[in-house]
Amino acid sequence: MVKTTSTPAGEMPFLDHLEELRWRLIWSLLAVLVCAVAGYLLVTRLDVLGLLVEPIKPFLRGTKLKYLSPTEPFFITLKLAVSVGLVLASPIVIYQIWAFLAPALLPSEKRVIVPALYMGLVLFALGVLMAYEIVLPMTLRFTMSFQTESLEQSIVIGEYLGFVTRLLLAFGAVFELPVVVLILSAVGLVTPEFLASKRRHAMVLITVLASLLTPGDVITLTIMMMVPLFFLFELSIALSKLVTRRRRAAAAAAEAADAEAVEGEAESPYPGLLRDRIPR
Questions:
Q1: Which terminal residue of the chain, N or C, has fewer Cβ atoms less than 10 Å from its own Cβ?
Q2: What is the pLDDT of residues 98-112, one digit of tens each?
Q3: Rounded average pLDDT over 92-98
């Protein structure tokens, strides 16, 4: 890595920022590449495909998923390896992003964002787990219950995996709502008063989002996604209140310290000397 220089004020020049960003991207891509190789080993040895196919097995009536091209099994394995590699490399990629952005953040913001990143991983896993264990079986049971007397299923592996991937990622992503609100509150872009005032708008938006993200049963699955989203929105408001209260208390304490320092400077026979000692 190229050594960077700093200005007298301690700031990194613009070109050095670009150089650091380049190296962060390189390390992230290398991590994804190495983890994709590890993902290929996991896919071929631990039967990851079988894990994804398991929810639909009760509805296949003893048959297997189909493929339409001689090369499709290879590319399916390759796509799964890359997907597993992205999951394995995500902590490294997140660390590289954090290492690039952290110098621009205040210590109080870092104390909030670091736990939020760990909480984000847990919430994403909970969303994926809920989709896999509850939502996916219900979706398959509902969608495959129509016209069973007139139609015979012939499900293709590529279409099925795309459907499963979209569903799992959708639930994992929407479970990240508290993390997003927590980070925005930490940097002062969102306040709990603003979120509470937009609760009705959020309910409408959550309803529309749930209906768009949930395939299959429009009523059941939409409600199943709406309920966690409403809970996550209220949790986001509570977390925003906690973070905002601490941020305002810290700002008030800093202002009080500055006011006390200025008052002491006015009473000091050497005001300039005291001002120079005030940390900035």
A1: C
A2: 888 888 777 777 777
A3: 87
